[in-house]
Design a protein that fits this description.
By secondary structure, this protein is of the alpha/beta class. It is built from 18 helices and 20 strands. A hairpin with an 8-residue loop joins strand 4 and strand 5.
Length: about 475
Amino acid sequence: MIAEPLHRATLDLLARVGVRVESTPALELLAARQVRIDMALRRVYPDARQIEAMLGTAPRTFPVYGRQTDRPLIIGGDTPHIIAGGASVRVLDLDGRYVTATWGHLRQFITLLDALPCIHLLLNQVDPAEETQHYYLRLAAEMLIGSPKPCALQAQNGADVTAMVAMAACIRGSRGALADRPLFVTGTNAEPPLCIPAHAAEVLMTASAAGVPCGLGDYVMMGITAPVTTAGALVQRNAVQLTALLLIQLVHPGAPCYYSAASGAGCLRTLNSVTANPQAVHLVRLATQQGRFYGLPVWAIAPTDARQPDSQAACERTIFLQTVMDAGASLIQGPTSMMDQMMLSSFAQAIIDHDIIGYLLAARQNTTVNADTLAAEAIQEVVTDAAYAEMKFAAHPHTVDHLRDDAWRPLAFAYDTFAEWQRHGGMSLVERATSVARDLLDHHQPEPVGSDLAAEIRRIAEVAR
């Protein structure tokens, strides 16, 4: 187990180098709680005792709810939940064209992802290019209105979080009801190496005070914004994670929060990000295991660097997703077509990714062993009763009784015979996925939020600042 030595190395890094925190209110709060501060350098140096106290108050699980359901997703533990991949600036559309992302594309993806049962939370799939006021608030409004599923909302600063809380409180009826049954998780990003910008600290502090589950992304690129060695990159980003979580818990002990494991590699020839090579998989797996070592819910990713739905996309997505599931990730962002260094989204790939997710979730289910599932009587009857000689177990009531126990219903993967496949046009996987996406966009209608409530949410987004 290497988590313990990595933890000790992180404490040493915090003592020697610390983490730059650019928010004065955050520095003042940390200083008031006896965290060592260098105000001139704006660096904080949490010690082992303070980190241990933080881990003692940070919850091991937290709930997040959809708009109309009383059955929450429990984030943490051994059950992975899938977040729609997000924030790409280009779209591979249904006609095979690469186009700039628009607000229309965002609404299309919200509809498509709402229809996919293996997608548990919605993050904005694209970042529309059109300029608009209150950008992140408009994104939040589109998502809260467009789907009843729980959301993961990006925030630029504390004011964004405050407005998002007001929007969600309209749906819940009050801020207290929202704190009891949160509709969204939020977060923002650090600035590697070892820096929490002022706006990021604001997001964490505001969300924590409001009871909104939150965390801090720290997407490092190994060899560029973090050491090229996996252990070094892990320790660097772990120092930021522990500092961010300390800040969250000092604002509100027991506040729901997550440990972020999302990171990648770097291409030293171009200095660009590489999101899905083995080095990136290794780092995200190690970071996920580190977060689980602390007993925290972990946000991981499963992207692909492929630029179209192809064999590379399927390989990278499946391996990355399986790896972080096995490592214990609680929230997994990306497996709905987050492609091309996170810059591209594809409707067809979203359908293919959904089948990959469903495949892996079905394959990891535990086997139930009891008198009924052992099927001793059914076996005996099929072996001894001539009535079952032709159809065997296919004709036995036991098979009918358990027909849907482990049912996996792919949307685009095909398991028909060669003759049936030819009879239906001999379509490729991408062609089938494109057809499924078209059909869902034409016919699926997300549960509406109500016109008056939608208008109020949009009003809050427009006047929040």
